[in-house]
Amino acid sequence: MQIIKAAVAHEFGSPLVIENVQLRAPEGTEVEVALDAVAICHSDITYASGAWGGSLPAVYGHEAAGRVSAVGDRVKGLGIGDSVVVTLIRACGACPNCASGRPTVCETPYDGDHGPLKTADGGKLHQAMASGAFAEKVVVEQGQVVKISHDIPKDAASLIACGVITGVGAVVNAAQLRAGQDVVVIGAGGVGLNAIQGARIAGARRIVAVDMSEEKLAIAREFGATDGVLATAEKPWRDAMDAMGRGADAVIVTVGAIPAYDSAPKYLAGGGKVIMVGMTHSGAMSSYEPVMLAAMAQGMTGSKMGDVVIQRDIPWIVDLYEQGRLKLDELISGRWSLDEINEAIEDTKTGAARRNVIMFGT
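-> structure tokens emitted (362 positions)
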């Protein structure tokens, strides 16, 4: 066991505590990654608040990048020093969903209580979301990481692990948007901006961003939105339809807000579909008029992590970034040290930040 520093949640809704914890060496097909950067995702904040339950004490964080620092004896294709993106997508490769190319909904559970982490005195420490990346190092399955170029800054690379693949993938994989179609993106935060980028890359005709903030709508245009609509309008779907001249072929809901889900079908054209990405609190309910969906041949579907296959999709996204066709650096609102993680979380909660990134060694 080695000793590393991590930000530990001991009570839901309380500040994280920076402390020493134990991390065991990688075994079998596991890899150890010394992290250079981990971004703060709203899912980390929601888990830490207790909204989805979970085991404590825990180390959250799942949007990370770094360098391989050790490997298990059955790891192939990765070596010490390789630059990698670390994701939470832990797939067994053998269940029906994995076998059909849907690793984001792998049916094999992971017990983070019995992962590679322990408290400094050897007690239970939950590795949240199979990552536990609010720490100097992680030990994860080889299948959770993707090798990238050393030239890509790790702060930018960390964003690919969740926010980028979730937003881009929701459009390209889940909605299967075709060139010339119209899309509405509800929520212009980190995931929403990436959904907008995905729609631009896919060749959408009109990309309408919907948000509560004029400032965020202006940023959305920088990322590729053709139009912006304030969600505070009496009937914002009408404003969106005016901008498109019709209903949307796809509506991507990137915020975990019930009013956004309640209104989403109203933006649709006949045959269109709502892609449900934003995560509400457990128990929150939304309602729809099913006769309208049936009569208009519309649909609603969930999308977890952009329905990605990381070994296929992350290299494509990296290549787009290297070509200058996908923005990553511009998504970063602030860079913080691990000791400043609680301040970074509070800044993220304001809703103004796109992505705050914790940098190690600073």
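The CA atoms of residues 197 and 348 lie 21 Å apart.
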